[in-house]
Amino acid sequence: MGGGGGGGWPEEEEQAAAGSDPPPAVCVTGSTGYVGSWLVRTLLRRGYRVHAAARDTGKAWRVFADVEGGDRLRVFRADMGEDGSFDAAVTGCVALFHAAASMELHVSPGPGHDNIEERVRSSVLEPATRGTINVLRSCVRAGTVRRVVFTSSVSTLTAAGAEGWREAVVDESCLRDLADVWRTKPVGWIYILSKRLTEAAAFRFARENGLHLVSVILPTVAGPFLTPSVPTSIQLLLSPITGDPKLYSLLASVHARFGCVPLAHIQDACDAHVFLMESPRAEGRYLCAAGGHPMAEVARLLAARYPPFKLSRDFDASSAAAVSSRRLLDLGFRFEHGVADIVADSVAQCLDHGFLEHSET
What we know:
This protein is of the alpha/beta class. It has one domain: Rossmann fold.
């Protein structure tokens, strides 16, 4: 697996070898989401005990019904909107993976056409920030959490330079300007603000309270999935096939911003989370993208894996930025899956799921 085997904290490995203690416990928030559920699967397969936090415990047990290592899984009801809700889930854990996030992409206008920005602040951004701090406060109270891994998003980055040109390389330093996001309100602007502001609040709280926090900046993540419905990021990748206008508009916006579509396989994304939890040298933010691929290349792969899809439009592939995960690679992580795997695994499971129709031959 990317980043090397099923290692854990060194002292716990020695104890496990001696047969004196059970494997360490870790907590995953957002455990019924795409990344969260696959992360639970990955951690169980690595030998960890996992505390899966979810608002709907019945849904969580359905998602994990057939997962390997289920005897080491505990499910806890927790809600980011409730103070202290994560205390039980975090108790006894050495690490927490904060994969839960608001997926609000728009806010309906209120009566009298009130200020949309104030509505976004009050109904999305402030609750999201409070919820993240609630989770971190539980970590502080637990007293055992040595590392927090925060799931961030490539939507917080841009290749656009100050004078309108495109940066040659995009990395963790290429943050989108918040004032510009508020002013221009691009596609997905509420999600962008939510991720940027909650991540900044998380790092600030961690510094002030002695928590060791790192973040994983994920691009469009796709591949197999455990969730009952097809994850939004996979639907985004497949939007050239399905023709979903909102998702295709979002995909086109990503391509316009970078000149390519940054991608990661779900297994690489989850392996990177575990790698950063286990790595004693991990600090700060890490972009986790196997590469950035022109939409024309992605479309050709989609057509090859799903013959009913016919290439019907040209995609501008000029001046693509290089999406760099150099910080993560320099730490020792290695990606195991390229774009061909990502497309093949996504199409295969969506055919099995019924989201895509089998071609009649």
